[in-house]
Amino acid sequence: MDGLLGLNGLQVPQPARRGFVMGSLMAGFTMATAHGQAAPIHTDSTGLLAGEVQVPVPGGHVPTYVASPAGGGAHPVVVVIEEIFGVHEYIKDTCRRLAKAGYTAVAPEFYARLGDLSKMTDVPTIIRDVISKAPDATFQADLAAAVAFVRASGRGDATRLAVTGFCRGGRNTWMTAAANAEVKAAVAWYGPVGGAPSEIQPRTPTDVAGELKAPLLGLYGGADTGIPVEAVRAAEAKAKAAGKTVEIHVYPEAPHGFHADYRPSYRREAAEDGWARMLAWFRKYGV
Which terminus has fewer CB within 10 Å in the chain: N or C? Predict the structure, then answer.
């Protein structure tokens, strides 16, 4: 059961504040993409404290999912960075899987100010109305607030901090590894490395590849039609030329979204291998 709510100083969900469209996390799965699996992976919360909390930020609260081992103690922290579809059941389950592995996993709804992702049903609208309007600076501030929140709860040891993210979250994993010196390890799942810069999103992962402050593992699909492997290799080369630790692993037959077990893109072998590589990467670099 969701035993985290109201414990250890964590706040239970409150009604949406002015300026925040989403006051709580969505239930179930996103409606914005096809669901290709009859039975997506479900990780129970036995032995965990898991549930929704509210992270205070300027102007209101960001709804956030947190899962950690029960029984007390400060565990290493992994920030799970959502896809463009929000913190839905797939992201929550990912947090529970990490908690079963001994981590405090925290997944903020970074887009809570911009749109109700639980009601959006098509990708172009999400990109136009939400993703393109999300400032990178606000993202980094909210991520730092979430880490401070779990640290203050006593359940997270933020001196052992990792980040991982999927799709757009993979892109933001690259950006966080370059922006946040507290991050010890980063794992990006098929994160775009290019894109058109804007005033609020002024740089790309390729732009910041030479500035990474944490070792980064990138997990990519060779059959991903939206992210050319050549572009990822170019970002890797730029990072390595600057003396940074980057490892890119490509699954030749895997499409974009191969870890997303609720979608037709899911590829079990690649997903399981990537998960094992991620955990090994965290351990290798002290998380």
Answer: N
Distance separating alpha carbons of residues 114 and 152, to the nearest angstrom: 27
pLDDT tens digit string along 208-261? 999 999 999 999 999 999 999 999 999 999 999 999 999 999 999 999 999 999
Q: Is residue 134 a contact partner of residue 141, using CB atoms and an 8 Å limit?
A: no
**Average pLDDT estimate for 82-88:** 97
Q: Is 229 a domain residue?
A: yes
**For 137, how many CA atoms within 13 A lie in the half-sphere containing its CB?**
4
pTM, to two decimals = 0.93
In terms of Cβ atoms closer than 10 Å to its own Cβ (0-12, 13-18, 19+), residue 100 is middle
What range defines the domain where residue 121 resides? Answer: 48-284
**Catalytic residue among 61, 75, 142, 167, which?**
167
Q: Which of 61, 75, 88, 256 is catalytic?
A: 256
Phi first, then psi, for residue 46 (nearest 5°) are -60, 130
Domain total of the chain: 1
Helix (H) or strand (E) run with residue 145 in it: helix 136-153
Residue 95 annotated in active site: no
Active-site annotation holder among 93, 142, 224, 261: 224
Active site residue 224: yes
